Amino acid sequence: MEIVINSLDQKELNFKVVVHKKCGNKHIDVDKFATFNHRKHLCHYCNEYFYDSERGVGV
Ligand SMILES: [Zn+2]
Ligand SMILES: [Zn+2]
Fold this sequence. Notes:
Elements: H1 7-11, E1 15-16, E2 18-20, E3 25-27, E4 38-43, E5 48-58
Parallel strand pairs: 1-5
Antiparallel strand pairs: 2-3, 4-5
The protein binds zinc ion (2 copies).
């Protein structure tokens, strides 16, 4: 899995509610995923990747 970390994004984390629209479950980022903004999230329910409208950290 390729993760591109932008140093600018690391300064200000965009904490937001991220919902996987396909299943309706809330996506909460933990561990290393909670340390940088990203658009591509892995749904823990479907085990499926999806893209949010903007980069952020799911809370
Ligand atoms: Zn995520
Ligand atoms: Zn899902």
